[in-house]
Amino acid sequence: MEIWINPACSKCRGALTLLDAEGADYTVHRYLEDAPDEDEIRAVLGRLGLEPWDITRTQEAVARELGVKDWARDARSRERWVRALAEHPALLQRPIITADDGTAVVGRTEEAVRDALSRKS
To answer: Quick check: keyword Amino-acid biosynthesis in the entry (predicted)?
Structure first.
Protein backbone atom coordinates (compact mmCIF):
# COMPACT_ATOMS: atom_id res chain seq x y z
CA MET A 1 0.00 0.00 0.00
CA GLU A 2 1.21 3.49 -0.83
CA ILE A 3 -0.23 6.83 0.20
CA TRP A 4 0.37 10.03 -1.75
CA ILE A 5 0.43 12.87 0.76
CA ASN A 6 1.06 16.53 1.34
CA PRO A 7 2.28 16.69 4.97
CA ALA A 8 0.61 20.09 5.41
CA CYS A 9 -2.83 18.59 4.63
CA SER A 10 -5.04 17.69 7.59
CA LYS A 11 -6.83 14.97 5.56
CA CYS A 12 -3.45 13.37 4.80
CA ARG A 13 -2.38 13.50 8.42
CA GLY A 14 -5.70 11.98 9.46
CA ALA A 15 -5.30 9.15 6.96
CA LEU A 16 -1.78 8.44 8.24
CA THR A 17 -3.03 8.40 11.83
CA LEU A 18 -5.70 5.86 10.92
CA LEU A 19 -3.29 3.69 8.93
CA ASP A 20 -0.89 3.69 11.89
CA ALA A 21 -3.68 2.89 14.35
CA GLU A 22 -4.67 -0.09 12.19
CA GLY A 23 -1.05 -1.28 11.91
CA ALA A 24 -1.08 -0.96 8.13
CA ASP A 25 2.05 -1.63 6.10
CA TYR A 26 2.45 1.33 3.76
CA THR A 27 4.94 3.63 2.11
CA VAL A 28 4.62 7.39 1.92
CA HIS A 29 4.94 9.26 -1.38
CA ARG A 30 5.33 12.99 -0.78
CA TYR A 31 4.08 13.91 -4.21
CA LEU A 32 4.94 17.62 -3.97
CA GLU A 33 8.62 16.77 -3.43
CA ASP A 34 8.67 13.77 -5.78
CA ALA A 35 6.07 14.61 -8.39
CA PRO A 36 4.49 11.69 -10.25
CA ASP A 37 5.10 11.70 -13.98
CA GLU A 38 2.36 11.39 -16.58
CA ASP A 39 2.60 7.59 -16.68
CA GLU A 40 2.24 7.36 -12.89
CA ILE A 41 -0.79 9.64 -13.02
CA ARG A 42 -2.38 7.55 -15.77
CA ALA A 43 -1.71 4.40 -13.73
CA VAL A 44 -3.27 5.80 -10.56
CA LEU A 45 -6.25 7.07 -12.55
CA GLY A 46 -6.73 3.53 -13.88
CA ARG A 47 -6.56 2.16 -10.34
CA LEU A 48 -9.03 4.80 -9.14
CA GLY A 49 -11.37 4.30 -12.09
CA LEU A 50 -11.52 8.09 -12.45
CA GLU A 51 -10.66 10.77 -14.97
CA PRO A 52 -8.00 13.42 -14.31
CA TRP A 53 -10.57 16.17 -13.79
CA ASP A 54 -12.09 14.05 -11.02
CA ILE A 55 -8.90 14.33 -8.94
CA THR A 56 -8.01 17.93 -9.78
CA ARG A 57 -8.16 20.56 -7.06
CA THR A 58 -9.79 23.30 -9.12
CA GLN A 59 -9.67 25.88 -6.31
CA GLU A 60 -5.85 25.95 -6.12
CA ALA A 61 -4.21 29.17 -7.27
CA VAL A 62 -2.40 27.40 -10.10
CA ALA A 63 -5.73 25.93 -11.26
CA ARG A 64 -7.18 29.42 -11.51
CA GLU A 65 -4.06 30.63 -13.35
CA LEU A 66 -4.37 27.77 -15.84
CA GLY A 67 -8.13 28.22 -16.16
CA VAL A 68 -8.81 24.50 -15.67
CA LYS A 69 -12.46 25.08 -14.75
CA ASP A 70 -13.02 26.04 -18.38
CA TRP A 71 -11.18 23.05 -19.88
CA ALA A 72 -13.20 20.43 -21.71
CA ARG A 73 -13.76 17.22 -19.81
CA ASP A 74 -13.68 14.67 -22.57
CA ALA A 75 -11.42 12.01 -24.07
CA ARG A 76 -9.70 14.49 -26.40
CA SER A 77 -8.76 16.72 -23.46
CA ARG A 78 -7.68 13.94 -21.09
CA GLU A 79 -3.96 14.22 -21.85
CA ARG A 80 -4.01 17.98 -21.27
CA TRP A 81 -5.34 17.31 -17.76
CA VAL A 82 -2.80 14.54 -17.11
CA ARG A 83 0.04 16.81 -18.22
CA ALA A 84 -1.20 19.61 -15.94
CA LEU A 85 -1.31 17.24 -12.95
CA ALA A 86 2.25 16.08 -13.66
CA GLU A 87 3.55 19.61 -14.11
CA HIS A 88 1.61 21.01 -11.12
CA PRO A 89 1.26 18.25 -8.50
CA ALA A 90 -0.42 20.68 -6.08
CA LEU A 91 -3.49 20.16 -8.27
CA LEU A 92 -3.78 16.52 -7.18
CA GLN A 93 -6.56 15.65 -4.77
CA ARG A 94 -5.18 14.07 -1.63
CA PRO A 95 -4.49 11.70 -0.10
CA ILE A 96 -4.49 8.97 -2.72
CA ILE A 97 -4.09 5.47 -1.33
CA THR A 98 -3.13 2.60 -3.61
CA ALA A 99 -4.61 -0.57 -2.14
CA ASP A 100 -3.06 -4.03 -2.10
CA ASP A 101 -5.59 -5.37 -4.59
CA GLY A 102 -4.41 -3.03 -7.38
CA THR A 103 -7.14 -0.45 -6.88
CA ALA A 104 -6.90 2.98 -5.26
CA VAL A 105 -9.05 5.44 -3.34
CA VAL A 106 -9.00 9.13 -2.58
CA GLY A 107 -8.77 8.84 1.19
CA ARG A 108 -10.42 12.07 2.30
CA THR A 109 -12.74 10.30 4.74
CA GLU A 110 -12.23 7.65 7.40
CA GLU A 111 -14.56 5.38 5.44
CA ALA A 112 -12.42 5.69 2.29
CA VAL A 113 -9.22 4.89 4.22
CA ARG A 114 -10.90 1.87 5.84
CA ASP A 115 -12.10 0.80 2.39
CA ALA A 116 -8.50 0.85 1.14
CA LEU A 117 -7.40 -1.16 4.18
CA SER A 118 -10.04 -3.81 3.47
CA ARG A 119 -8.91 -4.39 -0.12
CA LYS A 120 -6.64 -7.43 -0.10
CA SER A 121 -4.85 -8.96 -3.06
So the answer is: no
